[in-house]
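In practice, a research group might receive sequence data for several interacting partners and want a quick structural hypothesis before committing to experiments. The following worked case mirrors that situation: the sequences arrive first, and a predicted assembly follows.
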Amino acid sequence: MGSRRNKLEIINDILRSIQEKGGRIKPTHLMYKSNLSHQRMKEYIDELKGKNMIMEEQEEDRHFFVLTDKGFEFLANYKKLREFTETYGL
Amino acid sequence: MVVLENVFENIITDIPRSFWITDAVFEFLANISALLLTYLSFKAYKFTSEKKYGFFGIAFGLISISFIARSIIHLLLYLEMKKLPIFNIVSFYGITIYIILLLTAYLLLLILSLEFSNRKIMLLLYLLSFFTVFTSVKPINTFNIVAVIILGFITLNFYEIYLIKKKKSSLVVFIAFLLITLSHLSFIVSNDLLFFLISHLLQTIAFIVLLFNNLFLLYGNRKIINLISSNNKNNGIKKKQIRNNK
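A structural hypothesis for the assembly, expressed as tokens:
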């Protein structure tokens, strides 16, 4: 069994899941790809929306989560942040 | 050996002028190192809103400001202003700020290392440390003793991180903090000129090591190595051109 993911890793997994789907993803797909419970995913989604890293779009009767520029910025910097976190044990 | 008596510090003043400006330059590099860590921490805090990143950034921000305070005193010594009345006032406030900020920074790092969550214990640590330092006969010596104790625990924590992660960058951080701990130990006996110089040297090496480590974190090993080797190549090409011209 793998070790628990920290917050940085979970955010990366969520945003990368959206990126891999061309920058837009349905909520149910995101839940399966990010390997989170519905409750936890909702908490992270609310936080990421608050930070403008993702936004919600509606197309007819379907909802999508879309990656924003800030979300892309996180993905670009993730490797550096992960290295920093691991080096200093944060 | 000429020693300038100050409320907080015996400042050795018959060291050559060149030492003070050299030390000021290295303190500037130490500042860059601390500010890089502040930048990385606040970037992580911006994305995650986790307080530990914010506190880590604040700790190194305080370290940076404390070095600026000390640099100002060293700059005045370089400019040979020790005989002016303003020197005593500036050195008094400079050393006070240096002690307060550095002690706060080390305590923040200790709290992060030991993962304290109890605010009463945090407050107790702060009050004990500050009152111990500022009510003693020689506050700067007591500060260095307290710093060694705090840094001992921080260094041990970074050693444990290295044992778990097995990363070179973690080993570098452990070595840097070990050097910082030893520098404060050396500062305790820094009325002796040799130990005074050793203290500054150890601290300088520690922060330069951290600076390179942080640059590798930001830009990756290849870019740094390419930058260094391209400078060496250019120097080689220039030498060839000079030989050909001759």
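Before designing any experiment, note the following. Helices of chain B lie at 17-48, 51-78, 85-114, 119-134, 139-165, 168-188, 193-219, 221-245. The interface with chain A takes residues 40-41, 43-44, 47-50, 52-53, 56, 112, 157-158, 160-161, 164-165, 167, 169-170, 173, 213, 217-218 of chain B (CB under 8 Å).
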